[in-house]
Design brief:
The protein contains 12 helices and 11 strands. By secondary structure, it is an alpha/beta fold. It has a domain of 164 residues: TIM Barrel. The longest helix is centred in the last third of the chain and has 21 residues. α2 crosses α3, α7 packs parallel to α8 and α10 packs parallel to α12.
Length: 296
C-alpha cells in the first residue's frame, strides 16, 4: 500500500470522484452529456465516447488532489491512457488524485429485498493486474431495496468476503451496500445496515482497513460509529439519484463523511461545451461538492 496515498485518503480534504459508469449505465451518462444513442453504432464507439468524457474531466484544471482526493475508474478506463499515460498514472502523477477501480460485474437478481454481487470468478487476476497498474483500492456495489434483515445480512456478508480477497492483494476495498433512496422503509433499512456493518467491522484483523460507500442516510450522523471505527479508513457517500443540491445538503449534515458522486459530478456538463465553458462548469461542481464534503 502506498502510504502517501493512504494518508491522502484518510485525511485529505475533498471528495472521491466516481468515473466508473459500466456498460449498462453508459448510454444514460452519455445522453446526459449531450450524446444521443444514434451518435454511435457499436459498443466500442460508445466506450470511446465515455472515455473521452472522463479524460476531459480529468484534464480540467480544477480536477486535482487539492479538492479531489481520489477517483474510481471502470476497468476499461484503467486499461486505457489519458494524456499519453496509463489512466491510473495520469491520475496520481499528473493530478495528485488516488486511483480506485470498480471491480464488480453488476448485480444479481433481487432476493429478500436486495441485489447481491454477481459472481467474479476472475477477481484474483483482475486484482493482480490492478495492483501492478498502481491502483490503490477497489469498489464493489450491491443494492438494498427493503428493510429485510435477511437480504441486508447477505449483502454485507458477501461484501466483506470480497473485501478480504481485495485486502489479500494489498488493496483497500470500498464496500458499497447502496440503499435505494425511493423506498418507504429507507430509515429502517439503514438501521439494520448499520448494525450488520458494525458486526463485520469487528472481524477485520488489526492493522487492516476498509472503506465504506453508503447512501446518504435519513438520520444525520447515523453512520458516525462507522466513521470512528479503527478498521475504517474513510466513509464516503454516494449521490444515489439525489440532485447535486440535495446530495450536498445531506452530505454537509454528516460529520466526517465525504462525497463519492458520479451523476451529481457530471450534472451540467455537455460534449457541446467549449473547453472554457466545460472547465468552468466542472470547477463550480468540484467546488460545491468539496464545500459539502469539508462541511460534514
Amino acid at each position: 500500500m502506498n502510504e502517501t496515498q493512504a494518508n491522502q485518503v484518510r485525511t485529505g480534504k475533498g471528495f472521491i470522484a466516481a468515473l466508473d459508469q459500466s456498460g449498462g449505465s453508459t448510454p444514460k451518462a452519455l445522453r446526459l452529456y449531450g450524446i444521443e444513442e444514434d451518435a454511435y453504432s457499436s459498443e466500442a464507439e460508445m466506450f470511446d465516447l465515455i472515455h473521452a468524457m472522463r479524460a476531459r474531466i480529468v484534464d480540467a484544471p480544477a480536477f486535482s488532489g487539492e479538492k479531489v482526493v481520489g477517483a474510481i475508474l471502470f476497468e476499461m478506463t484503467m486499461d486505457r491512457e489519458m494524456g499519453g499515460k496509463p489512466s491510473p498514472a495520469a491520475l496520481w502523477d499528473d493530478n495528485g488524485v488516488v486511483p480506485f477501480l470498480k471491480i464488480d460485474k453488476g448485480l444479481a437478481d433481487e432476493a429478500d429485498g436486495a441485489q447481491m454481487l454477481k459472481p467474479m470468478p476472475d477477481l484474483d487476476a483482475l486484482l493482480t493486474r490492478a495492483a501492478a497498474k498502481g491502483i490503490f483500492g477497489t469498489k464493489e456495489r450491491s443494492v438494498i431495496h427493503a428493510a429485510n434483515p435477511v437480504g441486508i445480512a447477505a449483502v454485507v456478508a458477501q461484501q466483506f468476503e470480497v473485501a478480504r480477497q481485495v485486502l489479500a492483494h494489498g488493496l483497500i476495498p470500498i464496500i458499497e451496500p447502496e440503499v435505494t433512496i425511493s423506498i418507504a422503509d429507507k430509515a429502517a433499512a439503514e438501521d439494520i445496515l448499520l448494525a450488520e456493518i458494525a458486526k463485520h467491522l469487528d472481524t477485520v484483523p488489526a492493522g487492516q482497513e476498509v472503506m465504506l460507500k453508503l447512501t446518504l442516510p435519513e438520520k444525520a450522523n447515523l453512520y458516525q460509529p462507522l466513521v470512528d471505527h479503527p478498521a475504517v479508513m474513510r466513509v464516503v457517500a454516494l449521490s444515489g439519484g439525489y440532485s447535486r443540491e440535495e446530495a450536498n445538503t445531506r452530505l454537509s449534515q454528516n460529520t466526517g463523511v465525504i462525497a463519492s458522486f458520479s451523476r451529481a459530478l457530471t450534472e451540467g456538463l455537455s460534449a457541446q461545451q467549449s473547453d472554457e465553458a466545460f472547465n468552468s462548469t466542472i470547477a463550480a461542481t468540484i467546488d460545491s461538492i468539496y464545500v459539502a464534503s469539508v462541511a460534514g
